[in-house]
Amino acid sequence: MKKRRIRAKTARYLEGSLFIAPWLIGFLLFLAFPLGFSLFMSFQQVNYLPTGLQYEFNGINYYREILFNSSEFYELLVPYFQEIILMIPIIIIFSLMIAILLNQNLRGRFIFRAIFFLPVIIITGYLLTEFVNQGEGSLGFLDRFAIGAYLDEFLADSAWGQPIQSLLNQFVLVLWYSGVQILIFLAGRQTIPVSAYESARIDGANPWEVFWKITLPAMAPFIFLNLIYTVVDMFTFPFNPINELIGTGNYGYNSALAWIYFLVIIIFLGIVMLIYMRISRNQNRR
């Protein structure tokens, strides 16, 4: 019996290993090796020779230059970081509202779901660049009513003036990037049993109380998932100035800059996780 159990357990391990083998091989070849090689190059001075690339150990000089001897990285990172802080709540709240609406028993709701998700598939790459170059993606009434001039007047001396104006100029694009979040919230909304809402109605709860007492707490794990997804998505936004900066130096400098930016993303994700865990802990105590 023990031998049969061991054989059955070994067979399950082998089956699981076979299922994850394609992903593992792809990860090692196309992700782990490039990551390790870029980390190696970040400590090297890469020279271009007719025979190929020559590597000379440079230590942490590139890291020191980016962090302490150059202001270009901070001049691009800080405004975009402020813009991300404004973008994330807008995307999360908008996605949650649309998901709740699309979960209603409406005629043609499948068509509306497809409409909200189509921009994620279509508006990418070169097409997205052309949309922005043609002036699309911004709110038309800003220019029509000269709201931009008022923002310049009131926010000229504020550190948040440029991020707010940049966000408004790309506001439609931000909403277009909410398709995945809407689907995640929609799936999460459908996990809440109907009996919970029926019980709340019997107890006399109004829609506002139902939302805060039932819907929002049940959607908390999906809010956290969308937070993580949105943070990563915004840090890899096509018009991210840091990504453009990474492609302007030599291989060693670019690699060091990419790793510094990666650490910034990890730290930001860690802060988001800590804030979420603290909020969840306080709610559980109540």
Write the layout of secondary structure elements.
Elements: H1 2-41, E1 44-49, E2 52-57, H2 61-68, H3 72-102, H4 109-122, H5 125-133, H6 140-144, H7 147-155, H8 161-169, H9 171-176, H10 179-189, H11 194-202, H12 207-218, H13 220-235, H14 241-246, H15 251-285
Antiparallel strand pairs: 1-2
In words, what does this structure look like?
With 286 residues, the protein is mainly α. It has two domains: 2-59, no CATH class; 62-285, MetI-like fold. 77% of the residues lie in helices and 4% in strands. It contains 15 helices and two strands. It has helices spanning 2-41, 61-68, 72-102, 109-122, 125-133, 140-144, 147-155, 161-169, 171-176, 179-189, 194-202, 207-218, 220-235, 241-246, 251-285; strands at residues 44-49, 52-57. Strands 1-2 form a two-stranded antiparallel sheet. A hairpin with a 2-residue loop joins strand 1 (44-49) and strand 2.
Query: What percent of the residues sit in helical stretches (DSSP H or I)?
Result: over 70%
Structural class: mainly alpha
- Return Rg in Å: 24 Å
Order of helices and strands: HEEHHHHHHHHHHHHHH
